[in-house]
Write a structure and sequence with these properties.
Number of strands of chain A: 2
Radius of gyration of chain B: 23 Å
Strand content of chain B: 15-25%
Distance between the termini of chain B: 83 Å
CATH superfamily of the largest domain in chain B: Bordetella uptake gene, domain 1
Number of domains of chain B: 2
Number of helices of chain A: 23
Number of helices of chain B: 14
Helix content of chain A: over 70%
Number of strands of chain B: 11
Radius of gyration of chain A: 22 Å
Shape of chain B: globular
Strand order of the largest sheet of chain B: 7-6-8-5-9
Strand order of the largest sheet of chain A: 1-2
Order of helices and strands of chain A: HHHHHHHHHHHEEHHHHHHHHHHHH
CATH architecture of the largest domain in chain B: 3-Layer(aba) Sandwich
Largest sheet of chain A: 2 strands, antiparallel
Helix content of chain B: 40-55%
Oligomer: heterodimer
CATH topology of the largest domain in chain B: D-Maltodextrin-Binding Protein, domain 2
């Protein structure tokens, strides 16, 4: 075992061909990740013709690396411009963009890029460690647990919204859950709030909703305010490598948080059926809930950047587990990856562990090395990218709005989503203008759907008895504790009488 | 000038004017596509079976349409309805064709509100495969044969994809026509059904064989009956039932299996262009390189062409009111 482990690493590092492939894969993965709306799924589907002729191991390493670093670059636009590329980047935006506004884009990017790398590496380690216990852990989570996990995530809204704003937070969160009900009813098969608009039958486009709630309102606000994203002028601000390095050092300073959120991310990724955005939001919620100073979140807390980024990259390691060993992909991205693996002659299934251990280790190392290459590369170029936050908004806004519009269109290729983008942007700007929290919206729309679907299934399978499953009881007690803490914090006499309005 | 000579001039003029037309249409078969771009719509998102077949077909059709470019465009949405509506509504110039789920035959039969196409009128180019349906049962279940299944006293749970999907329709129709002791649980999309079977939540699934083969090879499930396909390792469901109504229904599902991974265009593509497209499709299906690739990916190629596919589709759409009622019943939740 140990021998296979290191010989796989040695074979990879000493082969110029493999390293060249990985560099190429990292570059493609990062470029694709920057553009909102184009997921890793599409990039793999497009790369398939090119891997047809490749040998099994190089081909698999190429595709996996490309997929794994895809999420790493999405955070750049989330932090610098408030333009999230997908559902999990939106979690990074909430604290990342306020940091950029304070002129700390360098620190935020340093921290988030490092956090992604750390998350990716820990995810790979969790992958390796979990192999023996994969089966019992994954099989313990059924629709009943999915429902309760989604519910637990929804209760995080109480913390996200902050003490002053719990009712506003709930209203926005419920609005998100309402939008999650648009589309085909999973139980009766009739379109809900969708009429004959076929583009709504699969539900509201998540990426469009997120761009409308975060990106466009921020750009309107920037245009109205004038000046640049960073409120601090370029002369006094720090955008040097030192600033970036300070950001990098934030991760070891918060190592305990980074470790926990990486493990949460990897475990959430392991369970097929929870959806890919859930991991980042669980981690973000966890960071606030365990923070001693939760009121800093949403105003540029570096933990709010570290937590979702570790989580979303660690998820990939976790998601690879059921894909490889059960032949059951845990996410749509993994489904495409698995299709490509079949082309390469890899037959996912339990026999992988006995027959193809060399391949398994090579893939684990590819996750580690690929993430490290991506981090190094990004940290190197980031210094200049940060300068963009000091550019006058009048120059920047049109480009970013165009980017957001393209993102909303290409994610599903339906022009009708542009109408949705405009309508929801108006609501988004209203929320921003009047200081209502926006994060609960994403939680509502992401988790609302999972909650509804799994509740239906759980009730059909076990009726109300599903609440008494052992793991369900654990989750229920977690939910009760979370609500208890929230209520206590709300009833407790205020320490600070006057707090400035919080924008999240 | 006599009348005859005037007639003669007229006749010559007629022939002369017809000649270039004949020539033009002779040219505009394969030559029409020279330097043009054909959009091949895949009615699902990237990845997955339809996308794989679509990209393969597009790549090799391009090879046999000299000078033409075939671009794949994914148009997912509403269970293939968005993409299929787009293909049907496209300009019938032969430059838009595509692929979608054969299960839309069911949707058209019950006049589903999202259907804005008529499959019978579409320009059929061909189909690439058969996709047998199987009844899969979890390995740990005591149900070993079809007989065991119908003798169950308590209904057993079966997983199905979203309501309205072809797999769901078939599961519900078979359950009611064969009076199977099955409780259908819906919403198991993608490979959720396999996961549910591993967890022991559900006992079985009625689904496409190609998707389940790896799962069965891994020893997690077994097949107890099959519809369509030429494999002989599993008994055909049609041989296991005697009721004529049930047999008719199985025959309908069988058509679905026979016409899988199809390629079609909007109605009224000019015949010469359609002939060129069909010809390119046929040559693509016979291409050694394509066959080798398909073999490597593990996807079967069992092609049929043009009018044969049209005939199969027309037959499938020609159902008795009783069957249509059964279908409609299957699609409304009680």
């Amino acid at each position: 075992m140990i021998e296979t482990m290191f010989s796989a690493l040695y074979a990879m590092l000493t082969s110029p061909y493999m390293m060249g492939l990985m560099l190429l894969a990292v570059a493609i993965g990062l470029v694709v990740g920057v553009t909102p709306g184009i997921g890793g799924r599409l990039s793999i589907a497009l790369a398939i013709p090119f891997v047809f002729g490749m040998e099994t191991i190089p081909g698999a390493v190429f595709l996996l690396t490309m997929h794994a670093v895809n999420g790493t670059s999405g955070q750049i636009s989330s932090i610098m411009f408030g333009v999230p590329g997908d559902g999990d980047d939106a979690a990074t935006t909430i604290d990342g963009y306020p940091m950029a506004k304070k002129g700390e884009a360098g620190r935020a990017l340093g921290a988030s890029v490092t956090a992604s790398g750390v998350g990716g590496v820990i995810g790979a380690i969790v992958f390796a460690v979990m192999i023996p216990v994969l089966e019992p852990v994954v099989l313990a989570f059924s629709p009943a647990e999915f429902f309760l996990l989604a519910l637990l995530g929804i209760t995080f809204i109480a913390f996200l919204a902050g003490r002053e704003q719990i009712f506003k937070g709930l209203i926005v969160g419920l609005f998100g859950m309402m939008l999650a009900t648009v589309g085909m009813d999973p139980y009766t098969g009739t379109p809900r709030f969708a009429g004959n608009f076929l583009f709504l039958w699969d539900g509201m486009s998540l990426i469009t909703a997120i761009l409308a709630l975060f990106a466009i309102p921020e750009m309107i606000a920037l245009a109205v305010k004038g000046g640049s994203i960073s409120a601090v002028p370029v002369a006094t601000a720090k955008y040097s490598y030192r600033e970036l390095f300070q950001g990098v050092m934030e991760v070891p300073r918060h190592w305990w948080l980074a470790l926990r959120t990486s493990i949460i991310g990897a475990v959430v990724g392991m369970i097929p059926g929870l959806g890919s955005s859930a991991a980042a939001w669980f981690c973000y919620g966890h960071a606030i809930q365990t923070s001693k100073t939760p009121e800093r979140f949403g105003k540029g807390a570096v933990e709010g950047v570290i937590a979702p980024e570790t989580g979303s990259n660690a998820r990939e390691g976790g998601a690879l587990l059921p894909t490889l060993f059960f032949g059951i992909p845990a996410s749509s991205g993994m489904a495409v990856l698995m299709g490509a693996f079949l082309i390469l002659g890899i037959q996912p299934g339990p026999s992988m562990i006995t027959d193809r251990l060399d391949l398994v280790w090579t893939l684990i190392w590819a996750l580690v090395v690929g993430n490290l290459i991506a981090v190094t590369f990004l940290l190197f170029i980031m210094r200049w990218a940060v300068l963009l936050t000091f550019v006058n908004g009048a120059v920047l806004v049109p480009y970013i709005v165009v980017m957001a519009v393209i993102g909303a269109y290409v994610s599903e290729g339906q022009w009708q989503n542009l109408v949705i983008l405009v309508v929801l942007s108006a609501i988004g700007y209203g929320l921003l203008r009047f200081n209502w929290p926006r994060a609960p919206f994403v939680i509502g729309i992401v988790l609302g759907k999972i909650a509804e679907e799994s509740l239906h299934k759980a009730l059909e399978l076990w009726g109300l008895k599903f609440f008494t499953r052992p793991l369900s009881l654990v989750l229920i007690s977690l939910i009760v504790t979370t609500i208890g803490i929230a209520v206590y914090q709300n009833l407790r006499p205020r320490v600070t009488a006057q707090q400035p309005p919080v924008s999240r | 000038m006599s009348r005859i000579s005037r007639l003669f001039t007229f006749a010559v003029a007629l022939v002369a004017s017809a000649m270039p037309a004949v020539q033009a249409s002779g040219q505009s078969g394969a030559d029409y596509f020279r330097g043009k771009t054909i959009t091949y719509i895949v009615a699902t998102s990237p990845g997955g079976g339809y996308d794989t077949y679509g990209r393969l077909v597009a790549e090799y059709m391009q090879r046999y349409l000299p000078g033409a470019t075939v671009l794949v465009r994914n148009m997912p949405g509403a269970g293939h309805l968005v993409g299929t509506n787009a293909i049907f509504a496209a300009k019938p110039d032969g430059l838009t064709i595509g692929t979608f789920n054969t299960g839309l035959i069911y949707s058209q039969l019950i006049r589903h509100s999202g259907v804005r196409f008529d499959l019978e009128r579409m320009s059929w180019i061909g189909k690439a495969a058969n996709d047998a349906r199987i009844i899969a049962i979890a390995q740990q279940s005591p149900i070993k044969t079809y007989r065991d299944l119908i003798e169950q006293k308590q209904p057993v749970a079966f997983a199905a994809a979203g309501i309205g999907s072809a797999a769901y329709v078939e599961t519900v129709m078979l359950t009611s026509a064969l009076k199977l002791p099955i409780k259908v649980l819906t919403g198991y999309n993608g490979s959720d059904d396999m996961m549910a079977m591993r967890r022991g939540e559900v006992v079985g699934s009625i689904s496409a064989r190609s998707t389940w083969d790896p799962f069965v090879r891994n020893g997690y499930a077994r097949y107890i009956a099959q519809i369509g396909g030429d494999q002989t390792d599993v008994p055909q469901l049609a041989d296991l039932v005697t009721d004529p109504a049930a047999k008719a229904l199985i025959a309908l599902i069988r058509t679905q299996c026979d016409v899988s991974r199809l390629t079609a265009g909007p109605p009224d593509i000019p015949p010469d262009r359609l002939a060129a497209l069909r010809n390119a499709f046929r040559l693509a299906m016979e291409d050694k390189e394509l066959l080798a690739k398909a073999e490597k990916i593990g996807i079967p190629i069992e092609p049929a062409y043009g009018d044969t596919v049209l005939r199969l589709v027309t037959e499938a759409l020609n159902q008795s009111p009783a069957t249509i009622e059964l279908l409609a019943e299957a699609l409304t939740r009680k």
